[in-house]
Amino acid sequence: DQQVKQNSPSLSVQEGRISILNCDYTNSMFDYFLWYKKYPAEGPTFLISISSIKDKNEDGRFTVFLNKSAKHLSLHIVPSQPGDSAVYFCAASGDNYGQNFVFGPGTRLSVLP
Amino acid sequence: DAGVIQSPRHEVTEMGQEVTLRCKPISGHDYLFWYRQTMMRGLELLIYFNNNVPIDDSGMPEDRFSAKMPNASFSTLKIQPSEPRDSAVYFCASSLERGLAGYTFGSGTRLTVV
Hints:
The complex is a heterodimer. Chain A is mainly β. Chain A has strands at residues 4-5, 10-14, 19-25, 32-38, 45-51, 56-59, 62-67, 72-77, 86-93, 102-103, 107-112. Chain A has no helices and eleven strands. In chain A, the strands form two sheets. In chain A, strands 2, 4, 5, 9, 10 and 11 form a six-stranded mixed sheet that branches. Chain B contains no helices and eleven strands. Chain B has strands at 5-7, 10-13, 19-24, 31-38, 42-50, 53-56, 65-71, 74-79, 88-95, 104-105, 109-113. At the A-B interface, strand 4, strand 5 and strand 10 of A face strand 5, strand 9 and strand 10 of B.
């Protein structure tokens, strides 16, 4: 059973508009969350994180929102750019050191010019 | 720093053969992780090491899989014998202790077992 779910395998958005990528988790012990971006033929790269003591974290065009009661987080990209086209993975961890992350299956974002 | 270095980038082998994947983590990183990515299961943690010691290998699918970290700068993932269902992209990643900023991944090894 997947503990971290990304129910949309793909998403297409027009350049300049907002991209919203969603992630749901089942384990209430998870308290630290990351988003990674992956381009073809490359390894995933860290994008942004959030801990359970916060409900929002912002870094430039990227904002992550966390709703602990709903066990849901989302990544907002505003404005979306063609270079944002990639696969986005949500990851969650519940151990003290945040080392053992469980990854979701990923969402492929396509930003159309 | 050159980042996490994996070799080979691509490996094609016949069923039954032994396959060895290699990883050089970032210098100073205390944790090393092996992940496997497939279409069906996404990114799965296979095993991770802390200070060269295996901590959790519960993700290793079968006894055919083994991983070693003989020193802080080198790790191997071995599959013996390989099977077609092992075909996937295998990623190595490393992080500092308390790697709350996330892992640094290598570019992966694409393994095809025919």
